[in-house]
Design brief:
Its EC number is 3.1.26.5. By secondary structure, the protein is an alpha+beta fold. The chain contains three helices and four strands; from the N terminus they run αβββαβα. The protein has a single domain, classed as Ribosomal Protein S5, domain 2 (2-Layer Sandwich). It is globular and about 40 Å long.
Length: 125
């Protein structure tokens, strides 16, 4: 299993990101929330993901970038769970950090595991 996060897997379409917020479903485990929709456009990869941190909670760009780096790394290490559970479906995901304190990687990784399990359960039903 490759634990990479390539350029093709990154969600960059502004239209898709807006659709995630307006029409997408969400699952949350504090301090994370994931918005998801089933892929509408043809995608070369089964999952396209983006990460976001609120400017309201973290004024300094350094802090926001640090948290986004942790989110991407945690997703990269745990995405195989989602890929194994998908039945040839394509999804667009947006991970949002909604906490107010800077996390450490260990806590964030645990929360990401729980969030991915909830996401898999919700997409199966």
């Amino acid at each position: 299993m490759k634990f990479s996060y390539s350029k093709e897997e990154k969600l960059k379409s502004r239209k898709t990101i807006e659709t995630l917020f307006t029409d997408g479903k969400s699952v949350g485990v504090f301090p994370l929330r994931v918005f998801y929709i089933e892929g509408e456009e043809p995608q070369s990869v089964p999952l396209k993901t983006a990460v976001s941190v609120s400017k309201r909670n973290f004024k300094n760009a350094v802090d926001r970038n640090y948290i986004k780096r942790l989110l991407r790394e945690s997703y990269r290490l745990n995405k195989h769970q989602i890929l194994n559970a998908l039945d040839d479906q394509k999804y667009a995901l947006l991970f949002l950090y909604v906490g107010k304190e800077k996390p450490n990687f260990k806590e964030l990784n645990k929360t990401m595991n729980v969030l991915i399990d909830k996401l898999i359960q919700q997409t199966k039903s």
